[in-house]
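Section 5.1 Outputs to date
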Amino acid sequence: MTSQVSSPAEQADEAVLGEQRKPATGKDVRRLDRVIIRFAGDSGDGMQLTGDRFTSETASFGNDLSTLPNFPAEIRAPAGTLPGVSSFQLHFADHDILTPGDAPNVLVAMNPAALKANVQDLPRGAEIIVNTDEFTKRAMQKVGYASSPLEDGSLDGYHLHPVPLTTLTVEALKEFDLSRKEAERSKNMFALGLLSWMYHRPTEGTEKFLRSKFAKKPEIAAANIAAFRAGWNFGETTEDFAVSYEVAPAAKAFPVGTYRNISGNLALSYGLVAASRQADLPLFLGSYPITPASDILHELSRHKNFGVRTFQAEDEIAGIGAALGAAFGGSFAVTTTSGPGVALKSETIGLAVSLELPLLVVDIQRGGPSTGLPTKTEQADLLQAMYGRNGEAPVPIVAPCTPADCFDAALEAARIALTYRTPVFLLSDGYLANGSEPWRIPELDELPDLQVQFAQGPNHTAEDGSEVFWPYQRDPQTLARPWAVPGTPGLEHRIGGIEKQDGTGNISYDPANHDFMVRTRQAKIDGIDVPDLVVDDPDEAGTLVLGWGSTYGPITAAVRRLRTAGHRIAQAHLRHLNPFPRNLGDVLARYDRVVVPEMNLGQLATLIRAKYLVDAHSYNQVNGMPFKAEQLAAALKEAIDG
């Protein structure tokens, strides 16, 4: 999030124990500089809600944070099974951090499946809070436990806290007119209350949220609040939790400003609305729901007051067709999807290239191919975005690097689309879309001016001296054609997918004209003004690590660790993938070794090798999860030593 470098202590894998004191209750309070918590349970246990509420209170407290939600693709996977486990990991600290953390310090396991699916990620000495009520013989056998892990010594290397969460929750809610099953549903709020006590999180925001969420069911709201308070009180009174922890606000990590916690999809949605307002154009979204992009459709549908129109189409092709029609009509047009949807939209993207109209294609990448891993992350759509259309159909590509950066990336993609009259790919991914971090809300005067001028009248003098409108008369600087809104008198012109004649826009099968138009469209993309690549190289290193998209956090964390250990390594991160920054070739030539970590099998490395003839070394991962900083640091050290 920020560019400051952490101290050596901040690079430690585990939380650092600091000041210790005793509060009035007599329990110890220890100060930590960071904590990584993972909530895990059945997909019906409310782990995403629990993690989200803990995150919101942590953000309001002023910590820097990074999150990693992880859940099944099925709406309701079989209860108590390993495929049905849902988890939410939160890393929060009193300093600048970049990733959700490699290994949790605390695991909250709501059932045997949650324990078995996550215990291998824990370092020795980590704390495990388990809901003992769920550790029945049948539930343990379902996930392959021959004996109880709570009793057979297999967890001796951890600090185990057995808590009958379900029983305690039901007991706390016995005064409410609820069935046992209804009462049991609040056990996630009991766990949230306990963890809120352990880490001194604020409680007012969660109670306010519960009252609002269940406003039409006040009995349910009161029950959840009672369970939440019971969890807090349990931590305060039980002897099993003799210590609570404090993580101070990250006062030095952030520039002065107003902050809020934000996910990548929400930041991207706000960026699209801001771009629409800065361009003074109505925003039209033509979309078909698909994981993990659907949240953008949901969010934008709430903002009709800003002139936003959302259209949920019957399929992916109709969604982009409607968006392209809106672009022709003078709107700021967007379509959102994931990899499978991009494949279906490819013909219309090619039509947008031919028509030379501004259109944002937002691709929230996920694991593939085909349906693949709908709820897991990947970066494997880069070559599809670059080349996945028939003919020569170049499209600019922009990629955000953090959840908060999705806001700025949306503005940048809009700038390119509107200025150069072209469809633009915005490549986010599931990790950025669902993850969250603090975001400084910008001032209005910090936003770019994106206003455009529509064609108003004739722009060419014909041979007979008459003034006519040529729809492909280009701006000499940008090579953009004029944007003529239908219905403007005298600006009638043809549209369609057949090749156009330069200038007039008439249908043309002339070979020389086609050659000229193909090269001109490519020159327009090649000539897009993008900033030079910034290189972070304080020590004149021999090795450069080059990344793009969501690998920024893990790469930067790994580079910090290596530099703290005395190694020299340079880092650069690409936002613009087509066209590349003009200085990229010169940057690459300065280094003996170039390493490109990607969550694919080497797509950026392939482009770098082809364009710059550089022996770029790939480091790849395609397991549906983001890189871990420790893993990357080891790979980069090997590259330095090599």
